[in-house]
Amino acid sequence: MTLNTATEQLICLLSQHPVDWSPPRFRRTQHTATRLAQWRIWYEQDHPSLQTIADQERTSFATVRLVLLKNGIRLRPAGSYPGRQGEGGLRQRPQW
């Protein structure tokens, strides 16, 4: 099968990999977008690991990493920050 236009390619890709806009997934996407500012503050000021942020937010390491990278935040190499706060070192998460 030869794809001659971007439109045909897009249709083909979407038919093979549909986007899941079901309410639970969409809510998680919205939640991630609203939490970015807090994650940035924690990462840049408190210096926790990405895994600590993920655990605090009950999300995946990959989600935190991807969101920070996509929003232009330079990530430190793993274990590179001396005196990093351990578990429980983050400012408390607001209760929704």
Question: What key attributes describe this structure?
Answer:
96 residues, mainly alpha, 4 helices, elongated
Q: What does this molecule look like?
A:
The structure is a single chain. With 96 residues, the chain is an all-alpha fold. The chain has a domain at 38-73. Helix content is 55%, strand content 0%. It has helices at residues 6-16, 23-46, 50-57, 61-70. Helix 2 (23-46) crosses helix 4 and helix 3 (50-57) crosses helix 4. The longest helix has 24 residues, at 23-46.
What's the quick description here?
The chain has 96 residues and is mainly α. The protein has helices at residues 6-16, 23-46, 50-57, 61-70. α2 (23-46) packs across α4 (61-70) and α3 packs across α4.
Tell me the radius of gyration. Answer: 18 Å
Beta strand count: 0
Low-confidence stretches: none
Q: Helix segment count?
A: 4
Question: Could you report the average pLDDT, rounded to the nearest whole number?
Answer: 76
Q: Level of helix content?
A: 55-70%
Overall shape:
elongated
Strand content is under 5%
Structural class: mainly alpha
User: Sheet with the most strands?
Assistant: none
Order of helices and strands: HHHH
Span of the ends, CA to CA: 50 Å
